[in-house]
Amino acid sequence: MRNLKLLRTLEFRDIQAPGKPQCFSLRTEQGTVLIGSEHGLIEVDPVTREVKNEIPLVTEGFLPEDGSGCIVGVQDLLDHESVCVATASGDVILCNLCTHQLECVGSVASGISVMSWSPDQELVLLATGQQTLIMMTKDFEPIMEQQIHQDDFGESKFVTVGWGRKETQFHGSEGRQSAFQMQMHESALPWDDHRPQVTWRGDGQFFAVSVVCPETGARKVRVWNREFALQSTSEPVAGLGPALAWKPSGSLIASTQDKPNQQDVVFFEKNGLLHGQFTLPFLKDEVKVNGLLWNADSTVLAVWLEDLQREENSTLKTYVQLWTVGNYHWYLKQSLPFSLCGKSKIVSLMWDPVTPYRLHVVCQGWHYLCYDWHWTTDRSSGDNASDMANVAVVDGNRVLVTVFRQSVVPPPMCIYRLLLPHPVTQIMFCAHPKKSNDLAVLDASNQISVYKCGDSPSVDPTVKLGAVGGNGFKISLTTPHLEKRYKIQFENSEDEEVNPLKLHHLTWVQEDVFLAVSHSQCSPQSVIHHLTAAPSETDSEQGQLSISSSVTVDGIIISLCCGSETKSVALQVAGGQILKYLWESPSLAVEPWKNPSGVPVQFPYPCTQTELAMIGGEEKKGSDQDVMAENSEECILGLTDRCRFFINDTEVASNITSFAVYNEFLLLTTHSHTCHCFCLRDASFKTLQAGLSSSHVSNGESLRKVERGSRIVTVVPQDTKLILQMPRGNLEVVYHRALVLVQIRKWLDKLMFKEAFECMRKLRINLNLIHDHNPKVFLENVETFIRQIDSVNHINLFFTELKEEDVTKTMYPPPATSTVQLSSDPEKKKVDLICDTMRAAMENINPHRYCLSILTSHVKKTTPELEIVLQKVHELQDVNELYDHSLGTYDFDLVLMVAEKSQKDPKEYLPFLNTLKKMETNYQRFTIDKYLKRYEKAIGHLSKCGPEYFPECLNLIKDKNLYNEALKLYPPDSQQYKDISIAYGEHLLQEHLQEPAGLVFARCGAHEKALGAFLACGSWQQALCVAAQLHLTKDQLAGLGRTLAGKLAEQRKHSDAATVLEQYAQDYEEAILLLLEGAAWEEALRLVHKYNRPDIIETNVKPSILEAQKNYMAFLDSQTATFSRHKKRLLVVRELKEQAQQVNLDDEAPHGQESDLFSETSSIMSGSDMSGKYSHSNSRISAYVSCFFGPLTMPWVYGESTSKRSSKNRRKAERKKHSLKEGSPLEDLALLEALSEVIQSTEKLKDEIHHILKMLFLFEFDEQGRELQKAFEDTLQLMERSLPEIWTLSPQQSSAIPVLGPNSTANSIMASYQQQKTSVPVPG
């Protein structure tokens, strides 16, 4: 949550040189700038503002005299102590700036478009006019030349096996044919200059080249390694721009892409694939991107844009935007607008290779600018509860504000955002303590928008809620409103065009007074301006800020800070000198800032962050508060970009990553991942140095560990929250113990017990501090404490934590300046005194409500007053129940105490208690638990008494069915576990749960009992497994197999029975007979041939098959006759009913016995439970049956008349309803049900007939097979032809439309639904 703030500007205007600048390079060691033009090179010193060298290239013939020459690259070479210059005509020149000697080290006949040196200056790359790349060493020895356009992808070509190909994917509305369309390549952008672009990775191991492909006309990015081997080619990207910049850290390559409605900065991986993007805040075809530049530490991306001509006579501008990323969101931190016409047009810009946040710009009118940026956190600086702990973040023309007092919202989200008409340059909060929530915003058009908190007459459209709010939410937060926008009036408007950031370090010191700093153009001086609001005759939102007065200061001001309480303004100049600006005095004087010794303060190194704070004297004079106050001094704190921390001119630490001043506290984070908190009121320079030294051992309050890379965002005033931000951007809230204790002490001093208690309970602070902080005050305000806490549980919690220890002397020692009042009764013990005092207060307030707390106060005393507690409990609870509860604690002293306070006769309980006391401990507790009917606990204690008590334990287990609980008490390999398991199995057998019983027996090793249980339930596999473990003889196993086979045959499981007989009884003949009985013809044949018994085929198999064929024929004849009879009768019944309906002229509902059943027809005809597993030829039969019929015995569908009947009477009534007796009221429904049963039973024969037909065919019984097949087909055809006659749809059902809507009723909806269910279309 940091912003980029301008530290200083270095400006060199009107450099005296011929021609126009074309490119430039930096000489970092000398601090000079090399600028190339169409006439040659010049070297300028921007600090001294003088031209140091001028080297013409025209006289030597390297550039033409007509001014048409062009320098495409300039590079300062440290090893050669010279400068390398490349011209568009193809010359590579070495220029010695000391001797002015020129040497042409190489020439390219086709010309040079790009010269790019590797970061280590070991290699140089030239792009020629013949679309080739030439790589040379630093001594200009050629290594290799390759074509810039390559057909191959590169060494990192992807290997695919066809998974996830486009033609196999879902393509939505485009259709599958889109997968086979040829990809259309868009040509390069209209404003593209078609020149190659080269960028190196930070370590110099790879470089990327962006070129326009001659075949497609679109740009491609190719990546090469240091050995000049092609690594990869980018995927086709429509609208790819020429700008290219490889992130120095090596992860991404930045470029631009024009999309249909926007323009994006896109990122490529080294393998050529896209990896993320962000959108530029411009419309399509509004701007073009001239360049992208990463700074040295990869944290800031500069985007150089230029307006495109859209309208005639429109003012065109060029922009330099600085973008940063945090939490995967790209923020626009700065936007510098320059004019596109005249001298202020940007020619070139670059980041400083040594100073990461220094940006160099060269304009067309020989104007050089150097901007130094630094990170800052813009937060409100109030120290009272009215300050909302605001933190503002710049994001283009939006200001994202998070109110940390209300809620902690992680970026990039925010509580609310301010919408500005132009990109934001700087944010400042008001320095007045009571107005610290007000903020002012300076934008790129040099307008200051002032937002103030308070009641607004209308909704401000420039303030939008962020992560809070929404439909249905009520916001308790008061958002600021736009008070006014002020336009800053410059004396010279040209300054604003040449340097868009003329004013910086804006500070809001008073209601209508702003301080701003500008730098002199011709000397190393700075000017402090007073900006005041000009009086306005109207109340319009637009105002004017004029420069009322100015003060010139020697040196370049790089920081300005204001103390919120003292209103002191401290200035820091580039040399480290600290000045005090007396802005409130009439003379507006500037004087040196002096330390307590009267020596002017000067930072040894320039600091990027400065703050003012009141710190105690250098030496501690005493513990008296007045003495300390007299020796306090306002000091300036500074932090360099190298993590060196200064107080005045003393270096306190060298590993500080961030700091913040809150009230009298100084908080710092260090490289060792710790957060320190020091009280400045009691500190001196020496104590701070000692506390921050690596060998210092903290007492635990001033130091706490934090996550790696944490930085301080803000501290919530009058609260305990410290907000930290991690390197990735996410936030973390910590509660530093030092801040927590100070805030708790403040709350206790103000008698705010509830706030202090809640904080201590949440953060696990010992509650004794509530009393120990000031015993006298606490005891005098106990009643206030109880009323504020207002919770019995919380008061009891306070009682439970009480102890005689004084935590202010052991755990939480107070500050040296605090005074703690002693207790009014020092001879009485602390816990007893608190308990007695609070009990008296609770009895006075509401003894009934605080009854439990009153009892706790008696128990918590040094000598517990248990008799009083029991007496009070006896008044509230039944004595017998209280006696049982006390007995359940196994504490006989407590039991006696309860019994004595009750009305029990000692003759009743004393013998019982004496008997218990004589018992062994575990048996004693068993007896008590059994007496109290706590049987689970009882067997637990009895199991510990020894094996001699196990029979008693087993009897109790059987008596109370505690088998599951008992099995947990003994190890599985013990005899007790086996005995309990056997008893459990026998219990399951009594409950007719034979299979679980068998499993229990088998688990404990009682195999004989398990075999009996498995035999009883027919689990033949388990029975045979157990038999194998019993090691039965062959005869015994055969007998067991015959027994199992008999039970299985009774259950009609012929295949299982045959398996048992064959494998265990060795009786395959009987197994074959069982298989024939069960119609398992194929399995029977398998056994016949396995044992080579073809005689059985003649004696048993064929007769069985023929007998089965006869049975099927008889069954089909019977089904056909029954079906025809029922169908004929159904048609007669329907005809009779139609005649009766015609006679009945009134269309009323039927009455009598049938009226109760009239609504059942649709339900019966619409239910369906059938599975629909039918052959294709019988699909219509299946469809009709499954659509119209299902289970017909559902008692709940017949209304209220049947709901109260018994199950027996209900079944009897059901049979009466569906009676086939002629003339019965529901004969037609009974006939329909009977016909459905016939059809379903016939359908079930399909598989059986299929198997027997195969056997008939196999044994050449062709006549019988044809006879059976024809009979079955005739039956099925008869039923299929009859379906339309039997199940007809009435016109009302076929045209049923759901009656729904606001005018429908429950009855109408249900009737419509029933009609819809019965109108299911018949499948063809």
Give a concise summary.
With 1324 residues, this protein is α+β, with helices and mostly antiparallel strands.
Description:
Residues 1205-1219 have a biased composition (Basic residues). Homodimer; dimerization promotes ELP1 stability and elongator complex formation. Component of the elongator complex which consists of ELP1, ELP2, ELP3, ELP4, ELP5 and ELP6. Interacts preferentially with MAP3K14/NIK followed by IKK-alpha and IKK-beta. This is Elongator complex protein 1. This protein has 1324 residues and is an alpha+beta fold. 32% of the residues lie in helices and 26% in strands. Helix 20 (975-990) packs antiparallel against helix 21 and helix 25 (1054-1063) runs antiparallel to helix 26 (1068-1077). The protein is extended, with a radius of gyration of 49 Å. It starts with a strand and ends in a 6-residue tail after the last helix.
Count of extended strands: 56
For the residues shown, what is the average pLDDT?
Answer: 82
- Helicity level: 25-40%
Distance between the termini: 71 Å
Mass-distribution shape: extended
Main beta sheet: strand number and arrangement?
8 strands, mixed
- The poorly predicted ranges are 618-630, 1145-1205, 1291-1299, 1316-1324
Q: Reading side by side through the largest sheet, how are the strands ordered?
A: 33-34-35-37-41-40-39-38
Compute the CA-based radius of gyration: 49 Å
SS content category: alpha+beta
Q: What count of helical segments does DSSP give?
A: 37
Strand content: 25-35%
Domain ELP1 alpha-solenoid: 737-878
Protein name: Elongator complex protein 1
GO molecular function, one term: tRNA binding
Family: Belongs to the ELP1/IKA1 family.
